[in-house]
Each structure stands twice: as structure tokens, then as C-alpha cells.
Amino acid sequence: MISIEKINKNFGTVQALKDVSLEIGNGKKVVIIGPSGSGKSTLIRCINGLEKPTSGKIIVDGLEATAPKADMRRLCHDVAMVFQNFNLYPHKTVLENVTLAPIKVLKIPRDKAVENGKLYLERVGLSDKLDTFPAKLSGGQQQRVAIARALNMNPKIILFDEPTSALDPEMIGEVADVIADLAKGNKTLVIVTHEMGLAREVADELVFMDEGSIVERGTPAQLFDQSPNPRLRAFFSKVLK
């Protein structure tokens, strides 16, 4: 489903990604962890074309996303992203936020986009907020709207970039629960997070990054409970306090 081959990404003199390679199978749930500045967010932004690698290749469901003339419309259809800061349109209602991209980008008929949007908003527990504007919602509710918006694009892959990092502690659980529910389905999920409970619960594979490289990967049990890697153990000693 996703093939990442020797990706490098430079921002000026800073090398954010260093020869990163990763294979993510269809329907798999991969959680990427690591300290701030380790390249996690840059990596998933390269997957959906928000960042262009300096070198290397990314293939998404047969499409070479890093090709000079990649079909970005197809990539937008196949890959949706949930950002840490929600990125909702403040002047549009919840339902309008969820339906805008399917109508404008995918050219889905408005009635169908609205019908599907209502179903996804019900799925994330917000069917009573259709006509509400984002400013009237809590952070957790806004992030759930963002997840419903991603689902309404009917993507094969959903990328989550620190989906709980902008939330107050009491709101983290409601978003984590929605993501855990999604993880029971057949969509491919790639999740960057500092929430170790979520990582342990949903990951088929856990990937630990540091200083732009993949340091270790394996099942949650292998990394949380069995890894002797001193860098990984030092990371866990800080985040699992």
C-alpha cells in the first residue's frame, strides 16, 4: 500500500529525514513515535505530498507520489490527513466543513456528500452539531469533526499528525477512542503520536524515530516490553512516567 524508499529531506542545512525506508501493508495500522524533531511529521507529510523529499521515492497504492508529474488529485482521493490543529474553516458550519472537500475536490454530488457527512459525524458522536460553527466546539469536538471530514473523502489511507497534542488532557480520551474505533476497520492508518496508550492499543507495527532516522520497529510488545535499545528505553523513561 505504501512503499517508502530511502527518503531524505533537507530544510536548508538541516537534514530532517535520513535514508528512511518503510513498507506499510494494506489495512495496517502503523504508529510512529519518537522525540520532538525526530522527523515523524515530516515523514507523513511526504506521504501525502505536503512536503517533497530531497531524494528517494514514495509509492502509494501504485502511484509514485514523488514523481515530478504525480497525479495529486488521485493522491488526495487515496490519502486523507488529520492535523494536530484541526484546520477547520471557522466561517463554515460543522457539516459544511465535512462536505466541502468531497464536493469541490472529488466532485461528489452535494446531496450524497451531505448524506455521507451526516453518517460520519454520527460515527464520531457529533450528529447534534451539524449547524454549529467551530468556535462553539471544544478542542476534542473540533478534532472529531476533522476526523469525520477525512472519512468523508473515503480515503484508502488516513494520516494522523499528533491528533491529540493540541487538546486539553480531559479531551484526549474522546479523540483517542474515535481513532481506536477506526483502527478496528480495514483502512490503512499511519499515526504520529506521543500518546503511548493509543500507540500500544492500535498499532500493528510501532516505529521509533530519532534524529531523522528509523531506529527500531516492531510490535508494541516488542518495543514496549522487550527492546534493549538504550535510546528507546531512555525515550520511554520520559514519556511513560
Automatic annotation (TrEMBL):
One of its GO terms (molecular function) is ATP binding. It is a peripheral membrane protein. SUPFAM superfamilies: P-loop containing nucleoside triphosphate hydrolases. InterPro entries: AAA+_ATPase, ABC_ATPase_HisP-typ, ABC_transporter-like_ATP-bd, ABC_transporter-like_CS, MetN_ABC_transporter-like, P-loop_NTPase. Keywords: Amino-acid transport, ATP-binding, Cell membrane, Membrane, Nucleotide-binding, Transport. Pfam families: ABC_tran. Residues 2-236 form the ABC transporter domain. It comes from the Bacteria. It is found in: Cell membrane. Belongs to the ABC transporter superfamily. PANTHER family: AMINO ACID IMPORT ATP-BINDING PROTEIN, GLUTAMATE_ASPARTATE IMPORT ATP-BINDING PROTEIN GLTL. This is Amino acid ABC transporter ATP-binding protein. It comes from Eubacterium limosum. The lineage of its organism: Bacteria, Bacillati, Bacillota, Clostridia, Eubacteriales.
